[in-house]
User: What shape does this take?
Amino acid sequence: MYLKTFSSRVLFKCFNLGVVASSKPLSARDAAAAVLVRRSARGYNNNGKHRYPGPATAARGRVVDLRSDTVTKPGPAMRQAMSEAEVGDDVMKEDPSVNELQQIAADMFRMEAALFVPSGTMSNLIAVMVHCRERGDEMIVGDLSHLHIYEQGGSAQIAGVHSTTATTLPDGAFDLEELESKIRHDYPDPHYPRTRLICVENTHNVKGGRVLPLTFLQEVRALADRYGLSVHMDGARVMNAAVAQRVAPSTILQHTHTVSVCLSKGLGAPVGTVLAGPRDFISKAVRCRKALGGGMRQAGILAAAGKMALLEMVERLEEDHRNAKTFAQALLDCDPPLFAVDMAAVETNIVRFHLQPSFSPSEFCDRMGQVGEGEEAALGQGIQVLMYPYFGNSVRAVWHLGISPEDTQLAIRKMQFVASQFLKEKVRAQ
Assistant: This one.
């Protein structure tokens, strides 16, 4: 009955935040359902509904998509590598392309072994499941970490692992004294969970792509070793950290036991994450991957893209960092000042900035995502810059391989136009 009411016609109409034109009018119930689907579409932090279309719908002029580096698409060379990939059954460990990707990652990270998994969320969950060997074990995570906020509480929901949080500092690190105070020493007292794991995030998403200092990682590892704990890094963007610090990834990862590295963000692969660590850890991770439904068969088609991501796409991350800094400086140079941005915090490909209290992040993002009145005459074309309202009344913009220096300049011009229009309206209203 529900399927008849909420028909496939409505599902297709509602997809991608838009309702596609149809020769058949929607019933009142179908129209209401369409509105509900649009309202449930996720802004990154669910702060407000955006009126601009995504790139999949009709757009006026140029679209500069700064919502996330997950929107990257594989280029012709990567697509060709995928089409020519040698494949086998990876669950049987017979896919040569997957095996090669895993060896490349293990060598690059100086870990004993690695495992190709479908997503970063699954990779982090597998790490928690292996490190925390019993249900009711505990891990220490940052209160603003991706693992704690954006992964549906899977560690508790699926793995039965309890979390306790450490306060995330502005640079993404923790206060080491607070971190140590979170370690429980009561086991086997039946009242308390047993601390097993410390999780760090590098670069730190919510803190605007901050790079964890090497000295901090060294101290965290020393603390973990002192108490017999493991250290897992959510290194979704750890390659950005390595480029920013001008070190090999292994220089960072020597201070961790395991790491999850995303291939489908700035590195440009369409799918996949690599989980790396000791050989015994990875053998257990294979079992967890299977239990979570992550065992893939002829996955070499995807692994071929992952190989290219690791071998050919890392150095170009520096261009994303330059473009992000260029945009951040333009925000700072806006006259009169509408924006606040800490240039020292713009270390990689993410810019997080604040606006004057009278200009809300949601309104700013809506204006940036639309072609405003008089814009085409003023700028010579319509420009839609897509970004999200974010934590703490801020806005987040993310650079990636789909955004060129020219696109960055277009985003700056659009930002300046939006700022000038807002200020004119403010003056007229006085």
Observations:
- The longest helix spans residues 405-429.
- The longest strand covers residues 194-201.
